[in-house]
Amino acid sequence: MRPKKWMKMDHLLFALALTPLLAHPALAEDATKKQAATGQEEQVAENAANDAKKKEKKVEPQIKQTAEDMVVTATRSEENIREIPAKIEVIDSHDIEMTAGTTLTEQLKKSSSVSVIEYPGALAGIGIRGFRPEYSGITKHSLILLDGRPIGATNLATVLTDNVERIEVLKGPASSLYGAEAMGGVVNVITKKNTKELTGEVEAGFGSYATNFQKASGGGAVTDRLDFNVAAGRYEQADNLKVGDNGDERANTGYGTRNGSVRLGGNFADDWRADLSTNIYQGRDIETPGDVAYGTVRSGSKDIDNQGIDLRVGGGLGANNEVGATVYHTEEEAENSSDYSGSKSVPTYRNYDSDTTWDGVQLQDTYSWGAHKFIAGLDYQYIEKISRSYTTSGARKAPSSPDEGRTNMAGYLESVWKFYSDHLTLTGGGRYDEFEVETLETPYMTGFDPNAENFSTFSPRVGANWLCDSGVRLHTTLGQAFVPPSAFELAGYSETEVGGVTMITQGNANLDPETSTTWDAGAGYELSRLGLAMDLTYFQTTVDDRISTVQTGNLKTYVNGLGADIQGIETSISFDFGVPLHWDRSVKAYFNSTTILTAEEELSAGVMRDIYNVADYTYNYGLEYDDGVWDGKLHFRTVGPMRDTDWVTAGYPEIEYPSFTVTDLVVGYNFLQHHRVAFTVDNLFDEDYYEKKGYPKPGQSFFVSYSYKF
Predict the structure, then answer these.
(1) Closest-CA residue to 166 (of 52, 288, 71)
(2) Quick check: 5 and 384 in contact, CB under 8 A?
(3) Overall fold of domain 3-709
(4) Is this structure's pTM higher than 0.85?
(5) How far from the centroid of its chain's Cα atoms is residue 240's Cα?
(6) Are 701 and 205 in contact (CB under 8 A)?
(7) Is residue 331's pLDDT more than 80?
(8) Where do the structural domains in the chain lie, given as residue ranges?
(9) Rounded CA separation 429/379 (Å)
């Protein structure tokens, strides 16, 4: 690490030492939730060995009681999901188990109707509420968190769901709480945290494309004051994928991954607790095919490493005050090899490496005044990205962009007001962010001097929620968000010789952050005795100061001034037939969707164009069954047309992707109290489709797994 970074952190810690507030209320989240669910599952299945006892067993329908769900992402403090104004969706551990797919991206696209780009070769990203999916770089329009702190991953294909308790998806702007990148929404991955008696699970499976995988996890209390969680997994796909319909083999698509996590924590005083957590992901020999238009050339391979560590300390200062701190460090490293250079095929060589680090501190204080809350905090983060490029001979050369760093210091205040016996909830708050964005001295890169620029911004948000005794819920929010310029856009400089002319690209120190204003309003209804829950939300986003390029002669630079307009409707509905009919099983139909009414961005010529890679509509729907012994899920995902650039056709024309529907099936059998066998079919009807032109998705795939829970 550069000494400059630690100087900045020393200054921050000195300033924070003068502030006797501040904590992270999520330190104690999920402390006791998992044990009750585990005990219920064992009781349900314990007599399944013979038919007579099975008939005596009464299994209550498993209805998702959203009225009891507590979430932390919407306010950075634990709140009832039905009482907060923000639009938030929860993907719980049962949803994850019953959804085909092992990565965060796959869970989100099949459960939360977000926009997705997924490439073979472990490369993926998402976009929320009409923003284009993004899969690389440190500046995006959707923020991903791990237990409330930045996840430290530019590539979401490296985020697995083996040790995840639930995923909270906040749709809409959240810069008032989380700062940069939270423009379309926030995804918060909540990991498992068992503080009660020991539990665990082992699982192994195999399937199509010579796939095999193994997982193990466990955790619980060792003593009255010490508890832990540990998880490890391995996944290998040894053969190439086959695409849908015709079953053609997709060359260069094998890969393997390893992952693990450890948490050690406990209570060291009354109402005070500390948790130390670490996680690691390793992708090895990940093959990366090129566009199908190039056949088997323009392929490559890569190794990816991602590891993180965080320390959380928190407790109470009196009956109404919770304080705490989180300190974290995360690293992402990628080594890329290729078999082409420019337009020529060459022997495979190492062409590009990158190292990205995130270091940060989060401090927060939550003060309760009756039913009301005040959440105040300070955040510090430093991100550094280092790049290395190589020639076909293996010699180092200058990367395409200079190395960069970004320092962010921020303070925020959120308030939660509850009236009329919690029927009315009002929220309001804001956050002030200061940034220093800098280009760094970059080996082998000449023609520019490292530079730094500073800017600041304020992001407010307000909301209101009315919850009727009848089960009707009305909610609305209004907020602003921002995405900062990159270091190169602010302070970069490069020169390229083109036909004997020196072409210059130069940053603009006067750039402002890209900003947005979003308003949403919705109505929901839930009636537990009928097993019915639904919600419909309309949202409208206006984006200002979008950054674009301007070419004058041989000089290209960046300017603000363009805009974008996005409007859409989000819908969710579920109905469990087993509840009103008093069945001893759950039979649930569900539907959730995002329909984009308008998603247009302004071009430099002043005309509007559809935002690329955003589907006109995304529907997730299907049926779930659970009687305590057998369970299953038949899931359909329909994605409407979207626009994009055809990068393999002369002139790079605009094209429209066709719509598609993909079906998945998961069936599980639970027996002898602790055992489970699951059968999964991904792309049940062998649909030939793609989410990015030139990169078709796998066809029909079969997987079988066995697990033992204790």
Answers:
(1) 71
(2) yes
(3) Maltoporin; Chain A (2.40.170)
(4) yes
(5) 27
(6) no
(7) yes
(8) 3-709
(9) 15
